[in-house]
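Write out structure tokens for Thiol reductant ABC exporter subunit CydC.
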Amino acid sequence: MKELKEVIRLVVLEKRDIVLSIVFGFLAGMSAVGLFGASGYLISRAALIPPLYALTVLIAFLKLFGFARALGRYAERYFSHRATFTILSNLRLAFYKKLEPHAPRIFQKYRSGDLLSRIVGDVESLQNFFLRVYYPPVVLVIIFLGTIVFTSIFSISVAIVLLLGLVVTGLLIPAWYTVKQRKLASRLRHARGELSTEAAEWLYGFRDLKIYQQLDDRKEKLQQSSDDYIREDERDSRQVLSSHSWNTFATLLVSWIVTGLGAILVAEGDLNGLFLAMLVMISLTVFENAAPMAVLPSHLDDSKRASERLFSIVEEEDRGSATYNLDGELAPDIQVSNVSYRFPDEEREALTGVTVSIPAGSKTAIVGASGSGKSTLLQLFMKFQLPSSGELMVNGMDMKNLSEESIWANSNVVLQENHYFYGTIRENLQLAGEDLSDEEVELVLNEVGLEFDLDQPVFEKGENLSGGERQRLSIARAFLKGKRLWLLDEPTSSVDALTERMIFDHLYERASQDTVVLISHRLSGLEKMDQIIVMAEGKVAEAGSYDELMQKQGYFYEMKQIEKNIFST
Ligand SMILES: Nc1ncnc2c1ncn2[C@@H]1O[C@H](COP(=O)(O)OP(=O)(O)OP(=O)(O)O)[C@@H](O)[C@H]1O
């Protein structure tokens, strides 16, 4: 049950509703037993033409049991469903709180469809844990015990038959199907994950698939995943039906045994014949409560796997204690010593033995060939990942101990791909701060060379903006945030050279006292930087000021010559 530890913790929080569900479940179950038992007795008694008052009292009891049964069932459903919805909402919240700090790393690791299926599908699956796994066995056992104690007043042997019936329907059959279910359900969940991944790939990649005429292939794959899922789902449903059938068979068998045994006991004079119909009716009714046990194995297995899958996303990596916050008042000092990093499931290291020093308030450019590890290094500065080995210190503190939230809150970040929300230009810029005035926003838009009306609409993912406009909007967001650490990954790759120069002039002005790390694809305009780090194949090839690197005539110098030749031809 360790897979369900977190879910059980959240379930137990709803103590009040759990107790009320059990109390009213017990009331409903016992009232049903009372109702049918009393009707059996009434029929037998009526056949003997008793005085009218005896019948009137029995009929009054019947009405009372009928009323109590309906009330009990309603209240049980009300409290159990209320508990379920509260547990689900707590579960979503608890999961989201765990997910949030790991979000950037997780988005890189999981395909979006798989992640979505886990967040939506697995949380939904867990709604059955309380409703169909956690409390029904408790209600079943106490109703049976109550009924067995009552039955034993009339016949110990009938009570023993009921007890055996409880063991078979409440324990043996569910246990047998729990074992069988284990093999089946993992295939169903795998098929569901595959289907949602394929569906997401199909939707997100529709345009490119169409252009490259690969739609038919993908459609076939999607169809295949859908068929696999339907087949596994049918297999799962057959299993549930079979469990149901065996449970009902055992239930009816017990009623037959009670009838036969009762008849023998009456014939031998060990049981008053008046109570035979009552005992048979009781045995038929009490097993109604065993019906939910037929679906328990599939829901138990489903809940275990769902919980395991859900929390495995956020529990698999020790991210350090992260108890300290980055001081937002100071321009940070970053020291990287002998850092290596390998992406999960990758054989090759993205960074190998990287040592760099980025003093507080300095301006650093990182350049190098595509795939040389520039963005990976920047990701380590943002604590999207932790180094596989080596030391990364910020303001003298190990990165492991700094909370990622404080790093993100205190840095102005422009990544290669940034998100733009459906809304207006103003709303997209207010991501940097809700209280920003229109004047501040307009000033910054001017500095990045955009002449937008603040109420101009922005479509989903910024689809009505050009690549350069989107980048400049991101830079404007970073300008508006105004923190002391700037982490910029090719922020102007789609912007023309003149506008780029203007943007950098404003950047240097705004960040004159701040720590700036800029990944640049162009080698021009880096003269103003305090140092340039040249990366090659995950290592630092060379580092120094612009003049130093040019004098050295090494890797940077060569790159510069190549760039010059390209632009002069
Ligand atoms: N999420 C990832 N999973 C696995 N490998 C990755 C991932 N992201 C990057 N890599 C690999 O790590 C290496 C360094 O990539 P990185 O993005 O840091 O290079 P870069 O220098 O920033 O390249 P570019 O200039 O093209 O952006 C590459 O070999 C790349 O394939």
